[in-house]
């Protein structure tokens, strides 16, 4: 009773405080620790009241310090996992992506593909003055241009096997060096003999056949699944910009430095690229001395969710791929059909659009080259945006299979509809608008079948790309030659565009029926 009186009278009686038990003593230490963390207004007690509160029953004593301590230390301790979760969510943000080592790799790939396309396109611009200077007929000029495809037809499968066994870095370096040498030697060959020119053009095609398999191999090693469409988009944007650059710069360079000046400039640029590529990049992230531990761990962790990075190492791949099993699976044929249709449309536009604008709309050659170059610029921009959207769909929870089918449908149905508009356009401006829109939508294919090659067979992505690329080259040859025969027989350039539109629709249906975004077991002898 005396203790309660003392509490009620505000300390008139001097009651000795009860001795502290070990748990209370522990809480007292926590209180002192909390006072160091700027919580003095909440946990500081007057000496007179401290002795009185200690006289309260133990349940009340437990409640007060426990509430105070949990509001400080628990909040501080619980913030650690929250910060860790936030850090994990920000691992692949935009700033980290554009400053990473993998963006340097994909930038170099984009430059290589830009040179690849520029070296093949420059002849389509130079063929007119070369034909006039050497007295070539139109049919022979067509043979000179198609000789590139002869070499390109031979190398993709062999190049794919080399890529799977020796890696994309080494094969890409050799490819760029050889096609740059062929480009540099083209002026000499043209002035030496027709046979020498054809040999150099075939050499150019053979060397460039390894470019896309090497690109795929490097991307599958350096980028996790959620970033591969973006990486392919950047790489193919360089490829398309190379075409636009060659179409616009070649006439200017020829007027200033002669017919052969573009060949010298692009050839020397390729040699410079090889030096930078060999000194500044690594075949795999774990061999890169400049890569940060954070980025390496990020790539390895994300890649293991789809397949281990080590699968891409040379010693894991057979010298002779299982061609029969590769061709026995419907997903393989969906990629072959998609690549064939993609190449059909690509090479038709590449080879015939300047002539189309010249013959149908009667615009001069330089203006026709400009009309043909604008779509490539738009396609380069849309390429990256399509890849970014594709990666965002997968990150949001959409299946890889559904994402690839959506991208490929846009990439085929969109151009098919636009070619119908181009065939009915009444003036060159409207025709160029339809062609530009067709190319912008066509770029979605690179986030469809082109990324899909890496996903269904990561260990055979090079040879699978080679097989589908060979089918694409055959389709390109048939389409490029077929345009001339079709126009002569039917007498209608727009009619061939309508035929191509129909083929786009059929290819889109076939791909959606038989494609998949999951790994296909090509080593399984059954099925």
TrEMBL record:
Q: Which PANTHER family match?
A: ANION TRANSPORTER 4, CHLOROPLASTIC-RELATED, SOLUTE CARRIER FAMILY 17
The primary site where this protein sits is membrane
> Where does the record place it?
Membrane
The family this protein is said to belong to: Belongs to the major facilitator superfamily. Sodium/anion cotransporter (TC 2.A.1.14) family.
Which keywords are on file for this protein? Membrane, Transmembrane, Transmembrane helix
A Gene Ontology term for the protein's cellular component: membrane
Protein name as annotated: Major facilitator superfamily (MFS) profile domain-containing protein
Query: Which source organism?
Result: Lupinus luteus
Q: Which residues form the Major facilitator superfamily (MFS) profile domain?
A: 105-518
Q: How does it sit in the membrane?
A: Multi-pass membrane protein
Q: Which residues form a coiled coil?
A: none
Renumbered residue ranges of the record's region Disordered: 14-37
Spans traversing the lipid bilayer: 140-163, 170-188, 194-212, 232-253, 259-278, 333-356, 368-386, 406-425, 463-487, 493-514
Q: SUPFAM superfamilies attached here? A: MFS general substrate transporter
User: Basic residues: which segments have biased composition?
Assistant: 26-37
Pfam family for this entry, one: MFS_1
Q: Which molecular function terms from Gene Ontology are attached? A: phosphate transmembrane transporter activity
């Amino acid at each position: 009773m005396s203790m309660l009186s003392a509490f009620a009278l505000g300390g008139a009686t001097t009651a000795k405080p009860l001795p502290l038990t070990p748990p209370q003593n522990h809480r007292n230490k926590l209180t002192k620790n909390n006072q160091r963390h700027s919580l003095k207004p909440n946990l500081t007690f007057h000496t007179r009241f401290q002795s009185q509160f200690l006289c309260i029953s133990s349940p009340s004593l437990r409640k007060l310090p426990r509430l105070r301590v949990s509001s400080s230390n628990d909040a501080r301790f619980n913030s650690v996992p929250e910060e860790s979760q936030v850090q994990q969510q920000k691992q692949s943000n935009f700033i980290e992506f554009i400053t990473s080592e993998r963006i340097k790799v994909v930038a170099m790939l984009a430059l290589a593909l830009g040179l690849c396309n520029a070296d093949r396109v420059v002849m389509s611009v130079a063929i007119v003055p070369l034909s006039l200077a050497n007295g070539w007929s139109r049919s022979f000029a067509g043979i000179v241009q198609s000789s590139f495809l002869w070499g390109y037809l031979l190398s993709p499968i062999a190049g794919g096997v080399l890529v799977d066994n020796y890696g994309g870095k080494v094969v890409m370096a050799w490819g760029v060096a050889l096609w740059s040498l062929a480009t540099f030697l083209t002026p000499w060959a043209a002035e030496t003999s027709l046979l020498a020119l054809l040999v150099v053009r075939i050499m150019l095609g053979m060397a460039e056949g390894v470019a896309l398999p090497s690109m795929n191999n490097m991307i599958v090693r350096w980028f996790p699944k959620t970033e591969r469409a973006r990486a392919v988009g950047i790489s193919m944007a360089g490829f398309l910009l190379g075409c636009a650059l060659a179409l616009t710069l070649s006439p200017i360079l020829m007027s200033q430095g002669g017919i052969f000046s573009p060949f010298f400039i692009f050839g020397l640029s390729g040699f410079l690229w090889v030096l930078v590529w060999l000194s500044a990049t690594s075949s795999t992230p774990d061999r890169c001395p400049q890569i940060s531990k954070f980025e390496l761990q990020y790539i390895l962790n994300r890649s293991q969710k789809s397949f281990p990075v080590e699968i891409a190492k040379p010693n894991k791949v057979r010298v002779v791929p299982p061609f029969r099993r590769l061709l026995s699976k419907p997903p393989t044929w969906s990629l072959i059909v998609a690549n064939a249709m993609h190449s059909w449309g690509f090479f038709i536009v590449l080879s015939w659009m300047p002539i189309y604008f010249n013959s149908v709309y009667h615009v001069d050659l330089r203006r026709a080259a400009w009309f043909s170059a604008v779509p490539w610029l738009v396609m380069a921009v849309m390429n990256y945006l399509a890849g970014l959207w594709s990666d965002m769909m997968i990150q949001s929870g959409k299946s890889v299979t559904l994402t690839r089918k959506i991208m490929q449908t846009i990439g085929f149905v969109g151009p098919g509809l636009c070619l119908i508009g181009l065939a009915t356009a009444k003036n060159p401006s409207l025709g160029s608008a339809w062609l530009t829109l067709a190319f912008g939508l066509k770029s979605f294919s690179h986030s469809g079948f082109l990324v899909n090659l890496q996903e269904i067979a990561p260990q055979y992505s090079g040879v699978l790309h080679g097989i589908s690329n060979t089918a694409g080259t055959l389709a390109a040859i048939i389409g490029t030659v077929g345009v001339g025969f079709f126009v002569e027989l039917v007498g209608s350039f727009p009619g061939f565009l309508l035929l191509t539109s129909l083929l786009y629709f059929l290819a889109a249906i076939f791909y959606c029926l038989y494609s998949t975004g999951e790994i296909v077991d090509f080593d399984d002898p059954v099925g």
